[in-house]
Each structure stands twice: as structure tokens, then as C-alpha cells.
Amino acid sequence: MIDLRSDTVTQPCTEMRRAMAAAEVGDDVYGEDPTVKRLEEEGAAALGKQAGLFVPSGTMGNQIALHLLGERGSEVVCDARAHVVDYEMAAMAALSGLLPRPVASADGLPSAEDFAGAIVPTVPYRARTTVLTVENTHNMAGGTAFGRQRIDAVLAVARQANLRTHLDGARIFNAALALGCPAAELADGFDSVMFCLSKGLGAPVGSLLCGETAFIAEARRARKRFGGGMRQVGVLAAAGLIALRQGPGWLARDHENARWLAERLAAIGGIEVDPSRVQTNIVIVETAPTAAALVGALRALAVLAVPVGPHRVRFVTHRDVGRQEVAQAAGRIQQAMADAL
Ligand SMILES: Cc1ncc(COP(=O)(O)O)c(C=O)c1O
After folding, report:
1. Angle, helix 323-340 to helix 291-300, in steps of 10 degrees
2. Ligand 1 centre from 123 Cα, in Å?
3. CA distances from 53 to 117, 200, 222, 336 (A)
4. Fewer CB within 10 Å, N- or C-terminus of the chain?
5. Which of 96, 109, 102, 100 is nearest to 69 (CA)?
6. At what angle do helices 172-179 and 234-266 cross, to 10 degrees?
């Protein structure tokens, strides 16, 4: 089986498993786990923030941030296809009383003008906008990465409207690699940033929420309230440390494989994709057959992919698939297209 559903499917490598077995641990709810503390410090430093908090999932990191940055009964402006809108179980509404105000965009980052137009003017008969979020890379836009110039324009709009800002940087190291800059440069200016250890970086579990020291102290309290207080969790942080230290170095191969796959797929009749727009490890294609038909035919040929629209299928490269598997997958996709059409 060649699993291209997501970069979340990676298995912890031998070095991670060894580190997990040997990890020094303590009760992290009492702040006594030395391995977690090390991970939080190193993670925050990598993102240029004062402090970090280890959370069980990217979703929890995003939702704690929105919970603290937003004000109950107010609005959050974000891209229309953002993970916080479509894939987090309406958590901002259910847990924090926040209303997402989705803004359409071509590539995952609305323009400064479009964001500005979505911010509610201060009048006594409308809810306020309190938060602006950005997703970098943007998953559903096909792993697109946004550099400083566009981020600065958007942050200027947020600042002018007195909004707090959050960066969903689940794949921030993919963005940094694609843009040739440090991850910290992309996180600069946001009140909070979340990034995942468990995606391309290869850890089995975990994400970090980073921000100023006082914000992270509050986030620690919110994490407990959300049921995310963990005990001897240094066993997971030990794998996270390897992901943080070594993972960014593994991503170039994933990006090359994704571009290579996109080039092969572009040559198959009934599939539309522009390989030059594949910047990181995510390839989203338009398909003539329904996505369900193609994904079903692929499964029968031992390739896993995800339908992300009626005629859209997502393939994600990651550490556990090499060029050979990607080449095999390309061949089977060609065969599946013939079966599905
Ligand atoms: C952009 C983005 N943000 C947040 C998340 C949430 O991460 P988790 O699955 O760990 O909750 C994901 C997961 O795929 C994601 O792609």
C-alpha cells in the first residue's frame, strides 16, 4: 500500500522510538517533565517566540489560540478554505463562541484589501471582529507558501483594526523551505503560531503553540480546561525533539517528490494540475471522473489518496514514501484513471 493521504501517516523512526524509550519524564501538569520543557523551549526559539506549549494536536493548538485571542460573540476573519473553518469540528463556535468570517482567495491567502473588507465596522448593531488568522502553508489550496511581503500587508490591516493575529503554521517548515527563509521570519508579527511535529517532521503525536510568555501561561490553563493536560508526556516530546531538530532537513525530498508526481500526473488525460504551482509536499488535482470513483479505483490498486471535492483529489508526499513508491503510485494513478473514466 502506498499511502499518499497525508503527511500525518508517517511512522516514528527507529531513532524516535529509542528516544521515547529512554526519555526522562515527570508530571507535566505540575510542570515537571524535563523533556517537554526542552521541546517547548527549542520549539519557541525556532519560531522566534518567547515561549511554547506542547499540545496533543494542531487543532487544539489553533483552538486554544482563538479561544484566548478572540472575544466570545465576535468574529474571526480567515481564508474561506482554512483548516480552522472546514476541518476543526466548528470548534471556534462550539468552544469559544466565535463566528468565522471566511474570505475567498485564489491561493489560500486573501489580499489585504479583501481582509479589510471583511472586518466588521464598529457600529452598535454588529458583532466586532477580534482575530485574523493565516494558514501557511495552506493545505486545501495545495500547500501554497506565503512570503513576508504578503504577510506584512495582511498584518498591517489587522494592526490598523486592532485585531489579534494567529498563524496556523501546521506546515510552517515546509513554507520556510519553499521560500528559502527561517520559519521565525514567517512567524514574526503574529501574536501566536501553531506548528505540527506530527506532519512532515515525522513525530507520532504533537504540536506546539508559541507566543509571548504571558500568553503561553494562559494557554497552559486553557489546555487543561480543554482536556489537554498530559502527564509523563516526555515520551512523546522525546520524539518531538528529533522531529524538530532533524525533520526540517527531510522536507526537501518530499517537495521534490511532490513536484515530480505533479509533472507525471499533468501528462495523464483527465487529470488537471499545474506542476509549477506545486511549492511544497501537497498535490491537489482536478479529475474528470468523480473524486470518489478515482480514489476507489486507486484503493483497489493499493494507493491511498483523499477526495477533497467532487472532482478534486489530494496526494501528499512524506518521509515514508521515496521516489520509487511515488513512481509506482504515478503508474497506478494512470491505470486507475482508465478504470474510473
Ligand atoms: C493546516 C492545518 N492546520 C491544522 C491541522 C490540525 O492538525 P491535527 O490533525 O493535529 O489536529 C491540520 C491537519 O491536517 C492542518 O493541515
Report:
1. 120
2. 35
3. 33, 19, 11, 44
4. N
5. 96
6. 50
Is 196 touching ligand 1 by the criterion CB < 6 Å? yes
Q: Is 58 in the pocket of ligand 1 (CB under 6 A)?
A: yes
234 CA to centre of ligand 1 in angstroms? 22
User: Mean pLDDT over residues 143-166, rounded?
Assistant: 98
Q: Is the CB of 204 under 6 A from ligand 1?
A: no
At residue 340, the pLDDT reads: 77
As a whole number, mean pLDDT of residues 150-175 equals 98
Phi, psi of 138 (to 5 degrees): -95, 120
Pocket test for ligand 1, best of 55, 63, 83 (most atoms within 8 A of CB): 83
Q: Are 25 and 233 in contact (CB under 8 A)?
A: yes
Q: How many CB atoms lie under 10 A from the CB of residue 73?
A: 12
Tens of pLDDT, residues 85-104: 999 999 999 999 999 999 99
What number does the ligand 1 atom closest to the CA of 59 have?
A: 11
Centroid of ligand 1 to alpha carbon of 61 (angstroms): 9
Cα 83 to averaged position of ligand 1 atoms, centre (Å): 7
Rounded to the nearest integer, the mean pLDDT of the chain is 98
Q: Residue 341: what pLDDT?
A: 74
Per-residue cell: 27 = 508530571
Residue 135 beta carbon below 6 angstroms from any ligand 1 atom: yes
For 284-306, b where at least 16 C-beta lie within 10 A, e where not — what string? Answer: bbebebbbebbbebbeebebbbe
CA 52 to CA 210: how far, in whole Å?
4
Eight-class DSSP state of 30: G
Take atom 13 of ligand 1 and give the residue whose Cα is closest.
58
How confident is the model over 330-338, as a mean pLDDT? 96
